[in-house]
PilZ domain-containing protein
Amino acid sequence: MHAQRHIERHQLPSYLKVFNRVTDKPMGYIGNVSLDGLMLISQLPMLVGARFELRLKIPGVEGPRFVDFSATCQWCREDVTPGYFDSGFALVAPPAEYVEMVDALRRYFSFRLAASA
């Protein structure tokens, strides 16, 4: 029997780039996020079980803001798009900046009913 995932995920219609924090080379794009992890869409498969030092560059008025964090690859599989791979990452002690980003994305992409006057 297939087990359902019970972690709430938020799909990102506009992808955010993920970089290797050590080399500053792009690794791929965020497919979805949660407070505990993220899915990376990349052109290369990720090593399952490996710990990665990652960086998000969040665009801003005064230039990009960096969100640095460590994450361990939990799984990797081919994407539905040929030549791409999806990888699930669990964050190691997510920093406050990451939690703030997830909350901001949740608010931005959520549909809420307007309060009636």
